[in-house]
Structures are given as structure tokens and as C-alpha cells.
Amino acid sequence: xxxxxxxxxxxxxxxxxxxxxxxxxxxxxxxxxxxxxxxxxxxxxxxxxxxxxxxxxxxxxxxxxxxxxxxxxxxxxxxxxxxxxxxxxxxxxxxxxxxxxxxxxxxxxxxxxxxxxxxxxxxxxxxxxxxxxxxxxxxxxxxxxxxxxxxxxxxxxxxxxxxxxxxxxxxxxxxxxxxxxxxxxxxx
Length: 188
Description:
By secondary structure, the protein is α+β, with helices and mostly antiparallel strands.
């Protein structure tokens, strides 16, 4: 049986989920971003306890099929941004459609209606947040960052960065306080 969790976007979230499942005595086969595969079924009582436990950490147990699908799209976008090698030779539209087993047009319309932005806009916003993170960590130069995130060139990255933030990457790097947006706030 699979359970889906909203805002489960990091390793820390996965640890919380695993810990709460363990406390309830629910055995899981796997915990991925936004998705838990449990062994067997879960009682209504344990489901409710799990739901309440997750809410204390800003996580939500999802039950509506469309909401689950939207959350799965968001998690795939995060996966594409943080592990871009998984889609290095494919378009993100093909990747999402293939992973979710739906036509991309359906997914795109569903996402846009619910989120108020397109999947592509959400993808770009997440990529820019990742660029900010990489600039902030100061481990890579812009050429390396553009390669890591599958940009066609440094100019493309810089143009998209400026369009989204109003600053060039160089101007952003010089800021003392670097404004960032949490993954759970994207598209809001």
C-alpha cells in the first residue's frame, strides 16, 4: 500500500516519517520524497494518528487523488533539480509523463489549475533556488553550475536568474543576506 505526504521534500522529512511510522508499529518497505510504501494495510486509527503526527512537523497525509498527483509532480521536479543527471538526455515533460503514466497535457492542466503556475514555471523557480544554493555554498563557478543544472549555457542561466530574481548571479553573490525560498513555499 502507498501513502502520499505533502511537503516531504528533504532527508530530514524522510527521517521524521520513518520515526513516526516506527512509533506506530507500521512497517514500511520504502520512503521516498512524498511517498511511502508500507507493508500491508494501515488501520483507520493508525492512519489518523500518523496524520496528526505528521501535521506537527508541517507535513500532511494526502488522500485526494488529484492532490496526490500534484504532489508527485512537485516531487519529480525536485528530483530533477537535485539529481539532474536522471534527465540529462530527456526533456522534463517526457520524464514526468513517463514516471507518472499520464499524458503530459493532462498533468500540465491539472497542475496549472491547482497551483496557478505551469509545471515549467515551477521547474524554473526550483532551478533558480538551486542556483542560489550553489552560489551561496561557493563550491562551483557559474560554468559548473550551468552544467550541473543542464543549462545550455552560462548566458541562459544568467538570463533566467535575472528574470526571476531581478539580479545577476554576480550581484546575488555579493549580497550579505541572500534571499531564498523554501521548497515547501514554491508556487505559493
